[in-house]
Design a protein that fits this description.
Length: 223
C-alpha cells in the first residue's frame, strides 16, 4: 500500500507590518501599563532606542515594551514628554517635595531627557512658587480674616500684655487714654498733681498672611 500523506511546507513567519510614529505603543513599567506613541518618546534618546528594532528583547509577546522603572515616577516623565510641562511637586502645608524631585531627576538622567534633567538640577521649581507675606497687629480685638482663597494661609498669634492708659482727672470717658483730649478744665481739676495712668491687660494679636503665587509659565518648556 502506497503512502499518500502530504508533507506541509515549513511555516515562514510573516514580517510585522511597519509602524508609523503616531501608532499607539504600550509600555509595561513595573506593574503598570502606559499607552503612548513613538512621536512622544522621540524626545528621549533612551526610550526611542528601547522601542527600536535593536532592542527587540524589551518587547513582550503581546507587543508591549518592558521598562524597568518606578511607574509613579515614570508618570511624571511621560507627562513631560507629552506636554512639555515641568513637574511641580508643591503643597501649601508641606512645601516642595524634594524627594520626588530627586527621583524624577534620576529617571530624567537615565532616559537622557536633558532639558528636564537640567530644570530639576538647577532647582528652577523654586522660581515657580513665590510667597507674598503680610502682617498686622490687632489690639483688644480678635477678628477672623473671613473667607480667603485656598492659596492663602492665615495664622493668628494672640498674646496678653499690660499697657499703661491715661485717666482723665474729671473721669471723662472720651478722654480715656487720650491726654490731648483734656483741655484747661481737666488741667485745673488735676491741679499740681501728676498725670494719672492705670495698667490694664490688653489682648494683642499678630495676624500673619501668606499667599502662594504660582508663575505657571515657568513650568512650560520653551519652544
Amino acid at each position: 500500500m502506497s503512502d499518500t500523506s502530504v508533507t506541509s511546507p515549513p511555516h515562514t513567519p510573516q514580517p510585522e507590518p511597519p509602524t508609523t510614529p503616531s501608532d499607539p505603543i504600550i509600555l509595561q513599567v513595573g506593574s503598570q501599563r502606559f499607552h503612548t506613541s513613538e512621536t512622544t518618546l522621540s524626545s528621549s534618546p533612551m526610550l526611542a532606542s528601547m522601542i527600536s528594532q535593536r532592542w527587540s528583547s524589551h518587547r513582550h509577546t503581546d507587543g508591549s515594551y518592558f521598562i524597568d522603572a518606578d511607574p509613579e515616577i515614570f508618570n511624571h516623565i511621560l507627562r513631560f514628554l507629552r506636554h512639555g510641562v515641568y513637574p511641580l511637586c508643591y503643597s501649601i502645608d508641606k512645601g516642595h517635595n524634594y524627594a520626588l524631585y530627586a527621583a524624577v531627576h534620576a529617571q530624567a538622567q537615565y532616559f537622557l531627557i536633558t532639558n528636564l534633567s537640567e530644570w530639576l538640577s538647577k532647582q528652577r521649581y523654586l522660581q515657580v512658587v513665590k510667597i507674598e507675606s503680610s502682617a498686622e497687629v490687632l489690639e483688644n480685638e480678635f477678628r477672623l480674616a473671613g473667607a480667603t482663597g485656598s492659596d492663602t494661609l492665615v495664622q493668628y498669634h494672640p498674646s496678653w500684655r499690660v499697657k499703661s492708659k491715661y485717666v482723665c482727672p474729671r473721669s471723662i470717658s472720651a478722654h480715656y487714654d487720650n491726654p490731648r483730649g483734656c483741655g484747661r478744665a481737666c488741667r485745673t481739676a488735676l491741679g499740681d498733681g501728676e498725670d494719672k495712668y492705670e495698667e490694664v491687660p490688653v489682648l494683642s494679636t499678630l495676624v500673619v498672611k501668606e499667599k502662594v503665587v504660582f508663575d505657571r509659565q515657568l513650568c512650560v518648556e520653551e519652544e
